Amino acid sequence: MDDFSDLYIYLDGELVRWDDAKLHVFSPAVKYGAAVFEGIRGYWNESDEKMYLFRLEDHMRRMELSQRIMRFGRVVPAEEMMEATIALMRKNGFRSSVHIRPTVYVGGTGESYATDPIGSFITAIPRGTPKKVETGVRAQVSSWQRISDNVMPARAKANANYNNSRYAGLQATRDGYEAAILLNSRGKVSEGQGMCLFIIRNGVAVTPSVTSDILESITRDTVIELLKAQGIPVQEREMDRSEFFDASEAFFCGTGAEITPLIDVDGDPIGSGSPGETTRALQSDYFDLAFGRKSHRPEWRTEV
Ligand SMILES: Cc1ncc(COP(=O)(O)O)c(C=O)c1O
User: Fold this and answer.
1) Cα(281)–Cα(226) distance, rounded to whole angstroms?
2) Cα 157 to ligand 1 centroid, rounded to whole Å
3) Mind listing the pLDDT tens digit for each residue in 86-121?
């Protein structure tokens, strides 16, 4: 078990020691998963000795949307969460890359439909780039279906939604794969467990549309911009699973996954079965941007 006891956590307006951040067992957040969250990365640029939080405001704005979809009685504004994140980062004084997880939750003693009182907390722990970003992953098309907008909207980053990813992830792991791909209720490709996906087909990048029961991923948005800048056309549309058979490359993307090459689906290699040229070029552009090695899009990096 990791020991984070030296770290501080932001909890309801205060910075408290890791071991003192407590939430009551009877709260709707604990009983029913009545909470929404974000995953944000902080990139430590070793040569400049600078920490950049990537697309902080976009994440906090999306968390406002998640709170509205969940009908929270009070929406904690992005500004409040940004200020708290910066204060927490300064208090912890990290000198390596981190993963930040802000949460807004329903506290008190209510039932599953309680809308208040609303509280918030933020954790930040050291986390670098996973090895799979280099090696790529093999994925299984899951027999579990993606939650649909009329059931539990995937557009809200609500904690309870992640039980859907859990089923798919556990099945994929048990069957010897490193990732899962979920189809939605219309049988179309939706996303991976905790990440969006792209294929390159006939020189065009294709990604499931925002009405394909995906989380409206911020990395997906970044990737679309970077691909277009490389001169690669992008189609956001419904995607069939059979299109994997005609893809020359594929990759997952997300704050956690960053740009993870998808090299095989259900035992069938994608293209050459190893990370492709476009994927590698994209990774290089993405990390240049996130680490602030190039000066474009300065508004996407918050220095702390
Ligand atoms: C279900 C799901 N899809 C996609 C993503 C990617 O979203 P983002 O790029 O905003 O991190 C995430 C989170 O990382 C996620 O949890």
Assistant:
1) 10
2) 8
3) 999 999 999 999 999 999 999 999 999 999 999 999
Q: Is the CB of 190 under 6 A from ligand 1?
A: no
Distances, alpha carbon 181 to alpha carbons 50, 133, 168, 250, in Å: 36, 17, 8, 12
- DSSP notation for 190-201: EEETTBEEEEEE
* Alpha carbon of 175 to ligand 1 centroid (Å): 23
157 in catalytic set: yes
Q: Is 91 helix (H, G, I), strand (E, B) or coil?
A: helix
Name the pairing type of β-strands 196-201 and 189-192: unpaired
Q: Is 254 in the pocket of ligand 1 (CB under 6 A)?
A: yes
User: Which positions ≥6 away from 14 have C-beta within 8 Å?
Assistant: none
Which of 216, 196, 210, 211 lies closest to 139 in space, CA to CA? 196
Task: Indicate the helix (H) or strand (E) that contains 78.
Answer: helix 78-92
CA-CA distance, 69 to 300, in Å (whole number)? 25
Closest ligand 1 atom, residue 219 Cα: 9
Tokens for 61, please give them.
């704005």
Q: Which residues does residue 35 pair with via DSSP β-bridges, in sequence order? A: 105
What is the Cα–Cα distance from 288 to 285, expressed in whole angstroms? 5
Residue owning the nearest CA to atom 1 of ligand 1: 194
Q: Which of 81, 77, 78, 85 is nearest to 53 (CA)?
A: 85
Task: Give residue-wise pLDDT tens across range 67-85.
Answer: 999 999 999 999 999 999 9
Domains belonging to the chain, first-starting first, are: 8-126 (3.30.470.10), 132-290 (3.20.10.10)
List, for residues 8-30, the tens digit of each pLDDT value.
Answer: 999 999 999 999 999 999 999 99
